[in-house]
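Dissemination and training. As part of the outreach component of the grant, students in the summer workshop were shown how a complex can be specified as a set of sequence lines and then modelled as a single object. The example used during the hands-on session is reproduced here so that future cohorts can follow it. Participants entered these lines:
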Amino acid sequence: MAGFVHLHVHSHFSFMDGAASPAALLQHAAGYGMGALALTDHQGLYGAIRFYRAALEAGVKPIIGAEIVIEAAGLKADAAIEGDLPPGLRLPLSAPVGFGRAAGAGFHLTLLAQDITGYRNLCRLLSRTHVRAGDEPSVVTLADLEQCSDGLIGLSGCPCGEAGSAVLTGLGARSERALRRLARCFAPGNFYVELMHLLTPDSPRYIASLVALAGRCGLPVVATNNVHYAKRRDFRIHDVLASAGARTMLPGPYDRPNAELWLKPAGEMRRLFADVPQACDATLEIAERCSLDLGLGSFHFPAADVPRGETPYSVLSKAAWRGLEQRYRPVTPEAVRRLQYELSVIQDLGFPEYFLTVKDIVDFAKREGIRCSGRGSAGDSIVTYVLGITDADPIAHDLLFERFLNPERRQMPDIDVDFDSRRRDEVIAYIYERFGHDHVAMVATVNTMTARSAVRTAAKALGHTPDEINAFSRYLPWVSAHRLPEVLETYPECRDHPLLAPKHQLLVELATELDHTPMHLGTHLGGFIITREPIDSWMPLQWAAKGVVVSQYDKDDIEALGLVKMDILGLRTHSAISDTVRMARERVGEAAVPEPFELPHDDPRVYATIAAADTVGMFQLESSGQRNLAMRLKERDFEDIIAAISLFRPGPLEAEMITPFIRRRHGIEPVTVPHPAMGEVLRSSYGVIVYQEQVLQVAQAVAGFTLAEADSLRRAMTKGRSRAAMEAIKTHFVERACSLGVTHDVAEEVFRQLEGFAAYGFCKAHAACFAVVSYATAWLKTYYPAEFASAILNNEPMGFYSPRVVLDDVRRHGISVLPPHINASSAEFTVEQDGGAVRVGLGSLLHMTSRLLSVLEAERAVRPFADLADFLKRTRAEEPAARSLIRVGALDGLGMTDAGRPPTRDEMLALVPELKAVIARQGVAGDDTLLIAPARARGPVDTGHVSGWTPAMRLSAELECLGLAITAHPLSLARADLERRGVTWARDLPACDDRQRIRVCGVRERAQTPRTRSGKRTCFLTMEDPTGLIDVVVFEDALNRYGDVIVKNRAYLVEGMLQNNCERGIALIAELIEPYVVRDDQRELVRLRRGVGAGPLGPTLGGAGAPESECGEAIA
Amino acid sequence: MGRNRAIRSFDPRKTGQPLDLFTATDTRTPVIIELLRCPWIVRGSDLEHGDPSPAGTDSGLGGKRREWGIEVVWDGERAAPRSFLLDGRRYPVDAVVQTWAIERAWWDLRRRTSRRCFRVLARGGLYDLAYDRIANRWLLTGIVD
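and obtained this result:
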């Protein structure tokens, strides 16, 4: 073992400061033969758990600690704070360190956890410091340190520590007082004077002085190196991060004189401290004393509410049997057997409390009428079904419990529940109330740098202006930073990118090296940790930017600690379903609209709607890829919906399952399986292994595995195994199969298929849970389209499409779109004319305020608004909002001018400032103001419309102020021009021949470039014309030619070959893409901004029409 | 107190000066006397102001420095210079008094400095030797006066 251990080490979890990952630090330490390594990030333990786990794997002893910021300890009694001292005796305070609201400025002190007591105290100390009331700074007090120092070893800190800083300033006495005071906070022998030889001209004097002081105080010394990067050349990244973090240019807040903060080998450290060998010996001694065992692998559940005389199991069991009676009418022997089995497994594994916790939360939601649904592999369990957590019957859909909970493997179950996003806060409030604020916190997420953020960070540090920085990051695709040089070189949208200039070579180099560096700590969308003990004994907490208490650990850390994490996810689809049901019941009566989640799944009209690819707004079925799949699949029953949801997933796409599935379904190719038992199991999927559950069933049917064994086999096959390990698994499988009479060749072929598909199959239970929600949305869209569309628009942003497309879809269904009006519209979209029309709401209007919305509705209830002056007088509308309302036509037709007609929008816009001035001066404005003060504005441009505006002007204003096209689809104004150009409309595409050459035109809705297995780049472009949606596939060669056209424009003319067959569906393979500028018949420009997106190509899934090999691996 | 006055009033017998190069007065005094007698010593106060280094690089020790390219024999075991050649004479290094590193302005090719410096005791005085990592050569960056 090396003769030195680094005890003061920052990883990149010292946000915007440390430049090395814990893994890199461990790799170097192990390479140097160091038996232990500490991690002491600023003000927290953000990387501690992953460091701990990686260290154990690397065979290095992990020492967990933190470098905290502490108040002054060496002040004399007559000075309470630094400012009380005369200027010559004050110590300089270093720049604040730590992340977000846990950042603090003060003196540094290094703490190391000696054991689990020390770890818990460190968590408590950090939490107490960070989670204070109000805006108190995150600085540890001496009193808190004294209370929480049990099990902790303290080191006096770097030159930013009080002792070091005083020595450098020449205040030896202050340094001595600080050392003595700090030493008193710790147990005897647990405080060390920290020496750093940072190879500056001051270093020898610094060390000599501290050694002398330590001798006087009777304290031991220890050598450290304030490590901020693993190897010397990474000092640049540290400087860049520190500069960008402090919002300064290089050299940044520390102005480091050299690059010596790297993880030096033991020999180098010993050489630096040749005069003080005891300081190096002390590192070994401390490493020996620290032996922290976090007890990973055990589970810690929150306390369940169990009445006296009962156990968690008995309570769970009783609830489950009650639920069985309600869910199964009549109760079947199979359901009884299954429930008995699952309950016994849950009891054996010790999980009843977990199920009770989830049930408790779901019961609350149901009690309060908050729509919710479980998802994920939890759907495989009959227990979750009968407890009301999930809604898909596991027996009817052939779902296997072992896929959720494997009796052979004791793993924490994970039940995710989606709640109505609008009422999610009520659920969260309940969790805090039920389990106690001291036992609940939100899970953190670590946001790391991608190409864009890395470029921005490096550019900031190098002193570029904000405009330059925006120019650098604009049009950069969403890729990892390490791919930046390649992307700049090869991506068409990066043609002429400013970063290609030779003078920015250093910037690109730095950005590349910043890849995956944590940038900040975010808050998980819905993850909550619930603990039995006070949560600050498990992990440090701090305030998140949005005002909630968040853990410093992410979900993987929580899982590793064996704590319960509940995902309380908000699903806007639930809100939309609830809204649709409410609106529909208001119109047709309470009894006429059943609860959509309780519908029998057998309505042919619903399946016809899906099969016609009329799925805009339907949960999980609306993406362009899903619409394309629907055209090929032609869903007929609920199993088909489950299949559709499962097939269009990264795994099945990568394994190219769709093609054989579709071909076999339509009888184009025969269903062939190597073993008849396999054919039975895979009957519903035509011999293709689509679901993970089917892997288990095949292993059971062919090789006689138990389902638990089969699940272990599936897991073993899905992990990256070595060839030898896979060979061993195969031999085992083949032997078991042969022992049942299966021939060797057949057994090998079955295994080959399992091996090929096991890693790519989708969890059927997850798809089945989603399918329940999908069916509900499909049913609502089929029977209440106006209410459904209004509900979706009221809950935006949600789903795959923009509000503009949802509104266009409504129009295509023959439902009128009524413009917004101050005398008719409310904040939300509403249904009028007995379901025949949707009235646009004012809530999403540009510059609209919630105050104005509420005043507007209250005043209108008194009497309708007569004209602009009346509106402004009664609502005191802010000028920007008033202008937006006028521009979208919300005041059209109100009032009368001296020309004997209502004022035009131009006249009203010109009047607004004058009226506002009159109202402000007099407090009132006469209703006849418009007659008295005619506007100085141009007359009506289009006399045929009350607004005086042409359709192009109206449409441009609607797109800009609402993001919607109310007057008409933008391209419908250019219909004559497009027909002259020989454009084929979307609605005519199904009638076109396969491989026919056509030209289409559309405004951009989505442009995505999911990664493909071949490594080639394919763009899936979803466009919309007045008659519908068009899917365009842009393969790599076309993308190289036209990528910049796609990125920099919003409407395109695309020419290419149409693909129209039952195997691939309908999509256009692009060969030529041109930008299209939308003008009406009078050549007037239609501005598309805000209503139609532009910009970089997204990475997400949803493409349609391409071979599956070209669309693999996208959404996680 | 002005700088020159401070130098003139420097008391070699007094301990606790800011830079304790030697542990006792009796070892410090002969060195200083020898330094002051040395015929080729360049006093800092005699040097021109400004940055005299040919490449315009900053030695990290202020502007009053001259830099000469120099030949140094490296002692790999001690990780320090063993001797250096100056004006045709070889000076064995008696002791390494101090060592430091400089890494400055790395983002600016014209101003970048990357050096490993050694203050060594050799015949005739204290010498600052620096290895320039960019030019890959040794420099005599100064003689402590």
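Residues 3-37 of chain B form one domain. Students were then asked to discuss how this feature might be tested experimentally.
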